[in-house]
Amino acid sequence: MTSFEDNNTDIRDGEGYFYFIRTQTISGYQDSPRVGPIISRAQWFNTLRINVLVVTMLVSVLVVYYIRRARAGEKLFIRKIAGLDAIDDAVGRSTEMGRPILYSFGLSYLNEVWTLASLSILYRVAQKCAEYSTRLLVPHYDPLVMSAAQETVKQAYIETGRPDLYDERDSPFLTADQFGYAAGVDGMMMREKPGAVFWQGYFYAESLILAETGHSVGAIQIAGTTSVEQIPFFVAACDYTLIGEEMYAASCYLRPEPQMLGSLKGEDLTKAIILMFLTFGTALGTLGVLLKNFLNVDWPNVIFANLVQWFNTF
Amino acid sequence: MRREIPIIITFLTGFLCVVAFFIPHPPFGGLQQRFLIWYAIIAGFTMVLGLDSLVKYNIKKIVQRKQGWQYSYVLLFGLVLVLVTGFQSWFKYNTPFELRSSFMYSYIHIIVPLQATMFALLAFFISSAAYRAFRARTFEATLLLIAAAIVMLGRVPIGKMIWDKIPVLSDWLLNIPQLAAKRGIQIGVYLGGVVMSLRIILGIERTYLT
Fold this sequence. Notes:
Chain A is of the alpha/beta class. Chain A is built from ten helices and nine strands. Chain A is elongated, with a radius of gyration of 27 Å.
């Protein structure tokens, strides 16, 4: 043994530690001379995370580049997202039916990115509700999200010129319990019979309980979540579903300013690069196996293994 | 300044979190954890706001005699009961989480069964949603129906009794096409998250500041 890496999590930086090798013999054991004190200290750069830094830099550079191009006046195309186009129709339909609108963040917290994405959708929904004088119900699971959502709705009502319609009690906190929240929202739907329901946030097992109740009261439902496990349930039960990243794109779609669209374009290009890299990796891995089996050539396998290890180190 | 100050705070916080991810050395190391502790403290205080909102909402329902107003009494009674049992258990056992305490009794014998009941309802909701989703009206819906039938049969012993290759086919569907689609969505979600964060840090995304 020429080196030893101590991965004990109890080790503290700045404290001295001594090491020795204990060899088991037939009559007992024998110890080597003690080495030390060895003092650990935090690094100035975690070299194991170079891969993350490279990808982050790539994404950032592409996003900033496309934002600059968009600011320079270049027209950027953004594909249609049916779920976001349907917001106006859903609010309109609800208004015609004389029913309120229900908006839920699910079990989201304010420190999560999808909650911020959802707030921008709520802002648009609230604007439309204020425009059509339709009541907007926003039951909450987290008090911090409640505060942010109340401010968002209030601002939307003020900017639309209808601050009189805003009622803080239409945006209540229900409970911080998963199924308690599901029961509370279900009860609210059964009593108020909303004409449109928006499920925009992070959901767990309660997703289908909520969406099926929404369907049973005849509401048009627009869901959006980044929870991959819950997407099939929403697709089955709702009229429109924003799948994963579409939710993050919502703010750009609803407010198509150059810098917003530029960031989307940068993201798309990064995705294209990742796709090319995946194709290259698949081809290299397959080639490695074939060359090893038929020609006993090992170098593609070695490159592939190193590549995988580089990405796996974190 | 009403907008600039929050944007500056957001930028500094976001930037420091990114830096702290790559630099474990003090003062950056552990910075994210520290921010999360601050967040938890603020979130703890906002629970009071939540409580205030809940009480106001239910009192309004009772006063206006809205549909189901009687249940608001049950809710308010439950709220007070849990608070009282919580404090009583705290004083008696020095912790409300002692298994013999009245607080844990109400949790184990009231809240847990209620949660289980709600969760159990999921089975019925799955049936009704599956019925609608699996109706073979289009080519895609038919494919979905066939795939779902194979996966469901592959998960139960009767599937193997019908044809011993059904579990194999079921595993293939789950491990190859399903996983590929799932990972595709996940890559999009993670990238979308990174770009959204970048927009927030750079102050481009400001809807949350309303």
